[in-house]
What does this fold into?
Amino acid sequence: MADEMAQPLLRDVGQRPPSWKTPITNFAIIFQHRFLVRNLVRREIRGRYRNAMLGYTWTVIEPFLLASVYYFLFVMLAGNPDEMYPVWVLLGVIVWGCFGKSLTGCVSALSKNSQTIHLVFFPRIVFPITTVAGNIVIGMMSCLVVIPIIAFYGLPITYHLMLIPLSIVLAGFLGIGLGMMMAPLNCIYRDVEHLFRFIVRAGFFLSPVMWTYEMALQRGVFGEVVLLNPMVVPLTMARHGLAGQQLGIPLSGILGSVGFSILMWIIGSIVFNRYEAKAVKYL
Amino acid sequence: MIENAVVIDNVTLHFPKQRSALRIIIDAIKRRVARFTALENVSLEIKKGEVIGIIGKNGSGKSTLLRIISGIYPPDGGRCLVAGKISLLAGLGTGFSEHQTGRENALLYGSILGHDERTMGLKLPEIIEFSELGDFIDEPVRTYSSGMKARLGLAVASAIHPDILLIDEVLGVGDPQFKEKSKRRILDLVKSTGTVVIVSHSFGLLTDICDRLVFIHEGKIVDFGHPEDMIRLYYETTGKE
It folds into this structure.
């Protein structure tokens, strides 16, 4: 450090790292800027539950209220579900919420922060990372709701419970790649933001949030088709984690979901790195 | 030989224009490019230890040039080279989070400006003292007056020690007493920093502290040189219009 200070070399400020490297180098950037990321995540979480009497308990209340609405809707439409069904919906809402908010948050990560972007330069990958990290933290807080559920249903405490936080992380990670791909485009046309808000809402019904993977399996071939949706894995993971069961999804399905999220991260990082500089000129 | 701290080499920057879907198709057919050229073939070398002022009318490209040096906009043509750590002071405290305390915001703003945790831990007492906020430092920023916010912003921003300091019109915040104090603080910062580039409309200040002035008009550097000559040139060029 001291040597650099003594004789700083000329460096090209406009230059970005080579795009193909960014899926790896992004991790180094996040580590380097961890203090900034932590402060920005804190701002995001504080901002969301500001001036609320119930404060952070809303992380649990919100999915709980949503789940009860869907529960009644299901009972009206399909009749009597099994006794664990309300819990499956609750977990579904939490995991899907983490994915949906990460995705829409990443899409608008650049456009929402135009003020900061015009003020100071730091690697802009920090913005989508912050959004997803914030949503993962909130998702984890929501997951604390499983503690009273375990007590109420008298569920066994097994190491499978680890699958619940893991599913939140996977859901957030699934959102970031696609979100980063779209963030530069959203600076130019905000239509992208509206489109993705719709996609998240539609995806809610197409993914096993109100229904479960097991229900799909009972419909024969539908159970196979459903696995094409990468969100099936994290949603089912959370439920089986709580029930203390094996995942029950074929290995190809799990690898498909994890592989898809990694592929999206790679493409997203490259696209983001290549276009963010051009895109922020529209802000 | 004195080394260069900033080399701006034939830099051009365009801003794209927001277009409707129909407009894009029409432009594509007519092979027309819809853009606004903010800077055109700008070249400038700033030596280490120099204090440079940039003058020009509103919208002439002064702030854009600072943003190029700080890396916010990569140039479309040419390149910009710098030696060392850069810091841009602009719009003090605009990134404040209203619902967090002054202390939390100081840490947030400091980290946005590129400090690590250890540095901020060391600087925090000095920042709090300079901001004159007293017990208010642990109150949410939404309870602050605009002057208090500006003071906190300046306190954090001026606690930095970069190799190259870029200042974009941040002088003159708060009441007269603080204005005097903030001016002194910035002048101290200018003196202790090696290389400084200032964008300002207060010609008196620029004449006092700058070695050279650069006069930008409509995205081009008209001339650079002795402050008084440049100010005369500014009035000759812009006064006519």
Summary: Chain B has a mean pLDDT of 86. Chain B touches chain A through 43 residues (CB under 8 Å). The first strand of chain B starts at residue 4 and ends at 16.
